[in-house]
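Re: beginner question about structure tokens

> Can someone show what the tokenized structure looks like for a real chain? I only ever see the sequence side.

Sure, here's an example I had lying around. Input first:
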Amino acid sequence: MAFFFVFGIGQTFFLDFLLITKRSKRISDYLLAGWFFMIGLHLTAFYFFWSGMYLENPYLLGWDQPFPLMHGPFLLLYVCSLTQAGFRLRWKHFLHFIPALVMYLALAPYLLGGADQLLNFLRQVQEMDFPWYYQPFIFMTQFSGLVYSAYCLWLLRKHKHQIESHFAYREQISLNWLRYLIVGLLGIGVIVALGIGIEGYLNVQMPIPREVVIFSSVIIWILFAGFFGIRQKAIFTDNVADLNSAPRESMIPVSPSTPLYQNSGLKPEEASELLPRLHDFMRQKKPFLEPRLTLPELAKVFQILPNHLSQLINEKEGKNFYQFINDYRLEEFKQRVTQPEYQHLSLLGLAMECGFNSKSTFNAVFKQNTGLTPSQYLKSVKKDSPED
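And the corresponding structure tokens:
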């Protein structure tokens, strides 16, 4: 077990080292590096206590007690840095760290006092027999991870709707990898909440100490974070062309308190006149063949304001931009798949020729629109075609 903890600590600091040594760093890299460094310190402090090394240096104990209240804010800031255009750290963001700061102030008499006093207090915390004023911190520790993880999942859901309204592709901007990691953190939050609840409030002794279960799950999460990060390439390397490659200026923010398109300026009669022109333009110019087409780019070549184009597609077609463009790509694929000049291409190769950016997107769009896989559709077309 000791090797597992030491390996996890080493892995955490190694990933942090990769982030720090990147040449082209964004604010998201700095936030993630700071967060991983704190996680490494948290794991080290746990191992320091679990292995009994604290007996030689007890004055190092206790400084990690507020760390659980800092993981959620770091996660939130990291998610915001990846999903919000032009994100900058403001003073208001540091308000999320106030509970941890207040906790440090409450712990100050013990942290700065004698070793015996500090050890006695930490044993009280471990046995859930602490002073009354410490109860709010235990409550926040129990639910902080759950609340922040759930909120960040909601932010990613909003991000998904945003990119589907402005981009005709999802690759490298969908942040699905981050959603998986947040779900993992949510699971750790559940373990923390249940562990404190079972041992602290129900007074039931778990067969495995809750700290061992919690920190083991954290190490497993770190290993998965490293795996997804390496696959994502841009997180831990200098290849920054993929992650967040979507032009952020093309994001068109809409205030949640304002009805959608209220101030757009596109009148209903104008929309009715523009719609057939838009379809003619799509069929003749075929801009959807560009895999990384965005709403502002299409609006520019069609000579219309981006917000007007978004309103036109949403209100007249009942679709978002992602669905609108991929429907045209799908129709183009259906037209080409039976033509002799394209028979040398595989189904995926032809899909790429029609503007699709990945196999998974092509298959998902095809299945959703036709109820068939591409190969099933091709078989049905050949079956229904007249014999020569």
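Each token stands for a local structural state, so reading them left to right follows the chain. Residues 239-263 have pLDDT under 50 and may be disordered.
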